[in-house]
Amino acid sequence: MPELPEVETVRRGLAQAMAGQRIVGLEVRRDGLRFPFPADFRQRLQGATLERFERRAKYILAYTDRRDALLIHLGMSGRFTILPPTGPAEGPTTFYYNQAQAQGSGAHDHVVFDLEDGTRVIYSDPRRFGLMDITPAEQAREHRLLRGIGVEPLGDDFTPSYLAERFRDKKAPLKAALLDQRIVAGLGNIYVCEALFRSGLSPERAAGSIVRSKGASPQVRALVANIRTVLEDAIAAGGSTLRDYAQVNGELGYFQHRFDVYDREGKPCPRPGCKGAVERIVQSGRSTFFCRTCQK
DNA sequence: AGCTCGACCTGCACGC
DNA sequence: TGCGTGCAGGTCGAGC
C-alpha cells in the first residue's frame, strides 16, 4: 500500500482515534512481522497512554507516556482498521465489533489494540513485510532503520540544490535514484512514476544528467516542485477521503486516486495534445510507467 | 562506494 | 474447477 501520502493519511487517522488514550488491551498474535517483536513489546505497551503520532519517511512513530516510541512500518500490505465502539446501546459493558465480522477474514490480523474508550484498532498485513518495534523515545529517530534516511520531501531541506548535490555524477537512472530512501524519504514506485511524468523526465535517464555543472538546473527545480505537489495532492485526496471512508468501514490507507501513468500501460498519454501511449518497462525488478513521447 | 538483484510473504488476476 | 505463472504500493543485505 503505502508511500508517503498513504502513511501520512494513516498517521492522521491513528492520531484521531488513539491519541490521548490508554491501551487497555493488546493482543499480539504472532512472533513478528518482517522482524520478530521484541520480547518486552507487549509489556511496554499494555497500559501505556499514546500521546502523539509522528511520521518519518514511511515510518510512523507513536510516543507513549512511558517515554517509548512504537515504530511502525506498513510494508506492502499493512493496514489499520479502526472499530469504534458500537455499544453500550445493547448493554452496559458489551461492545460490538461487527464491522470486523462483516469484513470477514481476520486471518491476517496480527496486532489488536483495545483502547479505554472501547475503540479497537487492528493491524493486519497479509504479506508481513511490515514491522513494529518499541524503542526509547529519545533514540527513536536514531533507530537503525531510520538512521541514514534522507530528507523529507515536504520539508524545508528538500531543495533543488540538495537534490542536485545528491544526484551529481550519479549514473543510476532517475527512477532508482528517486526510490533510494537515503536521498529522498518516502517516495515509492507510484509517486516516482507520477513525479517524473509531471516533470517530463525519462525514468531511464541517469540521475546525474539533469544536474548542471553549476548546480540546480531548471529540470532539477521542476522535479523538486513536482515531487512536492504530487505528494501534497495525494495527501489532500487521502485526507478528504479519510473522513468518509473511515466512517464507512474503518479502514485507513487506501483511497481512490487517479494516476496519470501508474498502472496505465497502453492507455493514451494524458498530456493534452500528446499522441503517445503509456509504456511499461522494468527497472531494477520493478514496473515503471511513462510516456516515451513526452518524457525525455 | 555504487548499483543490481534475490529474498522475505500472501493473494489475486490471468491463461490454459 | 484447478493449476501454473507473474505481478503487487517495500527494503534489507549479499554479491558483483
* SS element count, helices: 7
The first-level CATH class of the largest domain is given as Alpha Beta
The span between the termini is 29 Å
Helix content: 25-40%
Query: How many distinct beta strands?
Result: 11
Instruction: Output the radius of gyration.
Output: 21 Å
Relevant CATH superfamily of the largest domain: MutM-like, N-terminal
Name some characteristics of this structure.
296 residues; alpha+beta; N-terminal domain of MutM-like DNA repair proteins; Helicase, Ruva Protein, domain 3; five-stranded antiparallel sheet; 11 strands; DNA-binding
List the helices and strands and how they pair.
Blueprint: H1 4-18, E1 23-28, H2 41-45, E2 50-56, E3 59-64, E4 68-73, E5 79-83, H3 98-103, E6 109-115, E7 120-124, E8 131-136, H4 160-167, H5 174-179, H6 189-199, H7 218-249, E9 251-252, E10 278-283, E11 286-291
Antiparallel strand pairs: 1-6, 2-3, 3-4, 4-8, 5-7, 5-9, 6-7, 10-11
Helix pairs in contact: 1-7, 4-7, 6-7
The chain binds a DNA duplex (16 and 16 nucleotides) through helix 6.
Descriptive notes:
The chain has 296 residues and is an alpha+beta fold. It folds into two domains: 4-142, N-terminal domain of MutM-like DNA repair proteins, CATH 3.20.190.10; 160-291, Helicase, Ruva Protein, domain 3 (Orthogonal Bundle). It is 28% helix and 21% strand. The protein contains seven helices and eleven strands. Strands 1-6-7-5-9 form a five-stranded antiparallel beta sheet. Strand 6 (109-115) and strand 7 (120-124) form a beta hairpin. Helix 1 (4-18) packs parallel to helix 7 and helix 6 (189-199) crosses helix 7. It is globular. The model is unreliable at 88-104 (pLDDT under 50). It binds a DNA duplex (16 and 16 nucleotides) through residues 1-3, 6, 34, 58, 73-77, 108, 125-130, 145, 170-172, 176, 179, 181, 188-191, 253-254, 262, 284-287.
